Amino acid sequence: MNENQFDFLLSLIENDIEKQMTQFRKPISAKERLVVTLRLLATGESFRSLGFRYRVGFSTIKAIVLDVTIAIWKNLKDIFMPKPTKEKWKQIAKTYSDKWQFPNCVGSLDGKHVMLFCPNNAGTSFYNYKGRHSVVLLALVDANYKFIAVDVGAFGRNSDGGVFAESKLGTSLATNTADIPADTLLENGGEPMPHVIIGDQAFPLKPYLMRPYSKEAVSNNANKKNFNYRLSRARRTVENAFGILSARWRIFHTDIEVQPEIVDNIVLCCCCLHNMLRNDEDDNIFLQDLPNGVPDNFIAFEGIRNNSTRAAFVIRDKFCDYFSSENGSLPWENQ
């Protein structure tokens, strides 16, 4: 983050994090509060270490981080992560088609388990399938590695399909209240098809959510194998977004040492800052450095059994047929 970006961020949140001076002591300034918080997020340094570094109490550091992360989410979400309109969905779909050759795609979906220390009196609620404590970050990402929507806070023990189904995003898609555009023709011909999001095997196949064919289905079927390639290629966007997020904010390389509700604020704050910095043309995170850059503490979702409707299978098969047709195939696929 450069000086101009820092000053811009401070101007947005200063009124929410500045404390009044009292007759007993001078408060920590808004600028210093933001510096402390950004250092925590960028380095993953412990709260206790930050307390020694800035000569303030452990509880004061926690209070500062809570105030600042809440203020960042409150003031940045409508600027850098607004709820998409119908026109915005259309722009996202066009960019996915232009950059990743997956028409009618309005986002790539994935989730990660964000590690935390065992909360007090939590029992097994946060205990995930890897045997560690976590909360779930569910994210929908556009073709330029920016977060369209995020949902955080689900218990780590919850099934990944259940996390999506119970999220605001999952509910809005299932009830057709997300303002997704009407069916449109696929590029270069074909019949009208719905706009869809794409995910991996961790998510159920739905009319609005495409996932890959199983290994068994593609073993002797070139068209289905090609569909999986096209979907996997477009899904790089969400993997790259998580890679950039964790490369820039190294707190995701640690087990976060605060209560889950504060972890939620930290994660939401980092996602907003990610979008703010992605808007900057000087963003210098290099994607070629990212394939191995997602930390072990950023655990992927576990695959689930498919439980899909007939309509979802039909839609996926139509995409599959289109990708292998003369109009929809790519020149290099058969080389």
From TrEMBL:
Listed Pfam families: DDE_Tnp_4
A molecular-function term among this protein's GO annotations: nuclease activity
As cofactor, the record names: a divalent metal cation
Q: Which InterPro entries match?
A: HARBI1-like, HARBI1_dom
Gene Ontology CC: one annotated term: nucleus
Q: Which UniProt keywords apply?
A: Hydrolase, Metal-binding, Nuclease, Nucleus
Q: Where can this protein be found?
A: Nucleus
- The DDE Tnp4 domain covers which part of the protein? 109-275
For this chain, the family text in UniProt reads: Belongs to the HARBI1 family.
Q: How is this protein named in the record?
A: DDE Tnp4 domain-containing protein
Which species is listed as the source?
A: Parnassius mnemosyne
